[in-house]
Amino acid sequence: MNKPKMATEKGVPSNSRVLMLLGQLERMNGEAMMRDVETARQVTAKIFHLIQTQEKSGKEVMSKGSSGMEVILASLEVSSLINWRFQLRFNCIWCYCCFLSSGRGRRVGVFVSKGGTGILFQILITTSKELPPSEELMLQLHSLLAKVGPKDRKFGVKARLSGALNATVNLTKQNLQNTKLLLPCLQVLRVYSTNSVNAISLGKNGVVELMFKIVVPFTVDCHNEPTNARRAVDAGHVHVLLALYQDWHHNDTRHRHMLIRKGLLVCLRNITNIKLGRKAFIDADGMRILYYSSTECLPVRTLDPLVNTSSLIMRKCFPKNRLPLPTIKSAFHYQLPHVPAVGPVAQLYSQPLGVDDVVDESDDNEETDADTENDTDNEEDEKDQHTDIETDLNKLHPKKNPGRPFEELKVYERFFLELSEDFQVSNLCPSTRPIIVPTAQALSPKHVPITSCQEDCNPTKAERAPPSPSVPTPAPPASLTPLELDTIHLTKDQDRKEEARIPSPDTHTTLSSLTSNWGSDCGSEGTEDEGGEGAVLEVPDTALLLPLHDPDLYVEMVKGTHSVPQYAEVAYPDYFGHIAPTFREPLQERVYGVQRSKIFQDIERLIHPNDIVDKVVYDLDIPSCPVIEDNGESLKFNSQFESGNLRKAVQMRKYEYDLVLNSDINSNHYHQWFYFEVSGMRVGTTYRFNIINSEKSNSQFNYGMQVLMYSVQEAISGRPRWVRTGTDICYYKNHFARSSIAAGGQKGKSYYTMTFSTSFSHKDDVCYFAYHYPYTYSTLKMHLSKLEALRTPQIYLRRDVLCETLGGNSCPLLTITAMPESNSNDHICQFRNRPLIFLSARVHPGETNASWVMKGTLEFLMGTSPLAASLREAYIFKIVPMLNPDGVVNGNHRCSLSGEDLNRQWQNPNPELHPTIYHTKSLLQYLAHIQRAPLVFCDYHGHSRKKNVFMYGCSVKETVWQSNISATSSDLHEDLGYRALPKILSQIAPAFSMASCSFVVERSKESTARVVVWREIGVQRSYTMESTLCGCDQGKYKGLQIGTRELEEMGAQFCVALLRLKRLTGIRNHQHLLDLESDIIGTQSKVVSPTTYVVEEDEPSFLEEIDYSAESNDEDAEPEIEHGIEVQENANHLDRLSDCETNHKD
Description:
- It is an enzyme of class 3 (hydrolase).
- By secondary structure, the chain is an alpha+beta fold.
- It has a seven-stranded mixed beta sheet with strand order 20-21-23-22-24-26-25, sandwiched between helices. Strands 9-11-12-14-18-17 form a six-stranded mixed beta sheet, with helices on one face. A five-stranded antiparallel beta sheet has the order 10-13-19-15-16.
- The protein contains 41 helices and 26 strands.
- α5 packs parallel to α8 (116-128) and α8 (116-128) packs across α11 (164-174).
- A hairpin with a 2-residue loop joins β11 and β12 (656-660).
- The protein is globular.
């Protein structure tokens, strides 16, 4: 070691006695100390005495400018070479024990950085060779090593290479009865064994057997390796550990030895990481022992570590079961025109029968089993995003690549009539002539074009496809008559108020018998059984509050919607409509211990099987009769309507139900979206619902999100609305799993439970539950028809059919702009040369919030405000409001009927399997060919893992910054305009968070719309706009769950932001444009900022062993953004949206 030079900190007296002694010791280091060991011993003894008796002396030695630590460390190193004197070593070690005990982790870190660990190991080896080794020195040495070890990342490697590992093991074997020395040795062994190589070596050297000789008072974490766990099982130690834990639990009544009890549980936790360990645990009645002991610990908050570890062990050992389904493939089958050669759909079609069976053959550590998802949320990446960043500069630079010959793309010219319309006096309104639309079949080798017209959206009842003879439409029982299409007859009275007569409860019918007899001129009197009196309930006219909703029109739209199950029912929420509540809906606070209590209730099923009802009450796998009759003691379920998703309901206890969601068609997973009906409930009774086949490893249900409920009784009373509901909500891993084949190669992949409890306020009610605010395909068609009726002569609106989907539903394409002021050449030229904005939404069916944002955008664009008029005059909007109609109709969460995520098909879409993506991309390719690429492309999405609304964009510079790849200045040359739109949104939209935005290009997203449009079409401002499914943690809506009012407001504010962007890009001086954008963006755009790229989720990762309390979501909130003058300017033109701001104002 280099001889240190003594230094003193400014302010420390130079005549300090301890510093004088350190200076004397410094001068003796090296050969002088070897010659005069006695003097060195005396000096170190005095230093030790001063440090021990005077607190200020220790501070002087460890002060910032002092080199006292290095001096003593040098003396310690010299002492390790002197075999015939130990007192010098003892004094030095004692000094360090005092230093490191009184200080914080920084002192230990400094000690490690100075090479202290290696010197301690050297002394340990030297001392262990002495006969006999000094017990007092070994005691202090191991105590010091136990403090240093956790701070030294290479502690285990150093111990093994230096021989200290074996020295400690031998010392432990020689002192089994010496508890004073044994404890620090075990503490050091525990640190040693955190290194996997060391753990294996310790197991081979008999340390497992050694531990069980002393396991009563002490334990050590040496069973973490599978080989050691097998040794413990083979030796019968599982039963011994359980007996010891039970004994300590019964006798440690004052909880003074919790660490011993926790150590025993840690041993059991590590042993049960392997299959043999779990079987031995079950055979030894471990579930019952830990369940009862944990139940007794629940009232004592300080025993939570024991309860949590016990809970983890029990959940791990709970026998893995398959879902109570004949197959995890969808209950609905749709035969594809052709099956892809590779990919998940090809694997699904090639799977043999029985692959759903769970075979627990894995000896892997289940705690470290990655919970990776096959379906990451749009732009969210669940792996390390730094490894996913694109590093190929050739791929990063956008290169316009239309991909198809212009001759093929010319057919899409008919969708851009506004670019060639001459607007003569006779046709200043858009043409209504039929348009020949290229469909998937038309551009396939068959070349069969079809003609579209407005009647496509309103087919007559006779045009509906007949039900499949192999799957007859079931007739519901009399007590649960839904709103059926074939039984609806239209009639309205003079006041436009609908009436429905609901039979009395004496007739054994419920509110679900509600039907409306429409068609005559007089009011409906309903149907009344002879045995009882009917109560007339008035359905309110909501036309003023819901200008785009018409129940009559909705029913007509449903008749033209094609579903795989041939739905013939209409859900009441979709029929009545939804009026956003005026009250706040705050994020729900997490009740402490709620997850743990729910897990214990699940474990009770195994402990007390006789208490379980296990009665199937709803099953889509019985197509002839999915609603199973009973004696009225069970709830009734239904999901046989558009966008519905509930496959099976099983009554487990009197008021508890397990619910199984249906997977996406032609898939065996993607379980997240749910939408179902419940009736037959008892008023005031609390029911628990468990959705048991969720797949994601975490959910916003753990962080304040609630489910949505719609009460028909409330709707009839004049409050037709979805409201957030549910208590005791949590999300956790359960004991259901699927085979590795079904899970795509992941062994024993577990499902997750989303559980919530709720009660009902009305007798004979019919209630609906949904993951998020439903927005069906028929609702979209109804809204578009109503928007067309609102068109004024100043608005250019054209509604085309882009293509037909696999399921036979049309994909609408909208064109919205302002009519030219006149048919003069100048005005027509200005009309044709307006920049294009291309918007799309709902490529993922379960992200219904994207449709509500799109609704806000469409309503604003069709509005009469001056801002809306200016926006129409500034741009031509091409909008595909629903890219995946089939998935929406059939209740899918992520896929289309092809069983594939359409937002991963943009690179090479198939015209037959992915027609909406194929033709949407073709529209963009056509625009690129004619040099009219959109100014902005934005795809609306929803996000299930994060809060707020935010954007993902594409930037070469920010991607390079995050990946640290070498690049020249020319490679990084980039216009900063891609940041302008999200920055504007952060200033005017209260739900938008700039801090959550990312502009990094990832490899896994190279086939998404955002990246393909940026890279191939050359659109610099290509975005994905993500809206939370939960709520906000910043701004005006901080602490509130998001609703349709806020989502529609976001869509309107997006339009306002585009108008401000127009002012920015309308400046002719390009340099001035860059300066303006730089002013808006600020200096953060030129500096790498952690807020510009989201590396982690905005919530902590979900650790199974932690029971999250209400305080586990204490995140630092961002300051509220001031919106400035622009918001005041916009407020006058957003009258309908301003109510939202008032109601939610903090």
